[in-house]
């Protein structure tokens, strides 16, 4: 005989744990017998290597409308996984390597390659739509942000070329806007369609730049303001479209658009820098994961919500805001040691584990199929894509619930959430 148990209805405050299942059988005469059976229960749905031999390091995931999980590889391949972990396509994109997650827009999958080009890839991976790619003349920086009313323009900064490139498929566009400084992280787009990006000046000083869209589709710089020291993490935007940044000295900064100019002010002082994007929860709280492993939760005014910030084990590589499930967690964190942890609103750890043998990317949390539980997907530097069961889906009420905002990685505050 066999039986199945719908685990979605049972609290499980662990990543993995042996449990005892008691089975009771009753025959037609009313005779009853019970027995206990040991079973191992884990949240790890699957871990699939992208290649059988010497798998490449994998980026964070973008989730396509058809449910495909799309990640880039350091071998220049773009991998398409289905929900069961099967690789359905793996086209070669570029010639050097892909180390930033792809983003998905209405016209293309956007890939910024280490060969210095930005590629628009067909939804099924069958073709490069802007072949031979938009050449930025130097290494690209970060995940392509989707720009404009139709989110059909990708914004990618370059290093040596010191320009922000706007790329579109139709009509063709590959237009640089000079910044005079190398870019340091991915751009982000506010609800008013203005875009923000970070550049690096002398002595590790950084600047934040605001852009608007020109008639041609390219980006026009509106203002520039000083933004602390060595800002590297992707940007996030709060409920008022103010920009959140983490400085090397641990200061969390907030930039405000003032029309023709911008201003930057400290929001909070933290004990270390963040490498991962901050996230913003539905009530306006800001959650920041630091290089030492601590996760801080701050109110909209910058006051500490957690008196004792939880430590998830190592440098935080990604965060996601969840709608609370049976485990009570509303924040998910991944680390540079391959750990994953779910945090409750009071700052306690609901569960944690280490599924990977190397750093995990930021998590992309996909809603559950009927009768099931949501799944978090994360690429790893060990060459595997990990699928981990979580109790709650991505919180659609949060203004910035994950790195690059949404499951398509559009980094656009106007993009829909699950």
Detailed description of the structure:
This protein is mainly beta and 418 residues long. It contains no helices and 33 strands. A 4-stranded antiparallel beta sheet has the order 3-33-32-31, with no helix packed on it.
Layout of strands and helices, then pairs:
Blueprint: E1 16-26, E2 32-42, E3 44-49, E4 62-63, E5 69-72, E6 78-81, E7 87-89, E8 103-104, E9 109-112, E10 117-121, E11 134-135, E12 140-147, E13 153-158, E14 163-168, E15 173-178, E16 188-189, E17 195-200, E18 205-213, E19 219-229, E20 236-237, E21 243-246, E22 251-257, E23 262-269, E24 279-280, E25 286-289, E26 295-298, E27 316-321, E28 331-335, E29 340-343, E30 349-353, E31 364-366, E32 375-379, E33 384-389
Antiparallel strand pairs: 1-2, 3-33, 4-5, 5-6, 6-7, 8-9, 9-10, 10-11, 12-13, 13-14, 14-15, 16-17, 17-18, 18-19, 20-21, 21-22, 22-23, 24-25, 25-26, 27-28, 28-29, 29-30, 31-32, 32-33
Brief summary:
It contains no helices and 33 strands. The chain has 418 residues and is mainly beta. The strands form 9 sheets. It has a 4-stranded antiparallel sheet with strand order 3-33-32-31, with no helix packed on it. The chain has a 4-stranded antiparallel sheet with strand order 4-5-6-7, with no helix packed on it.
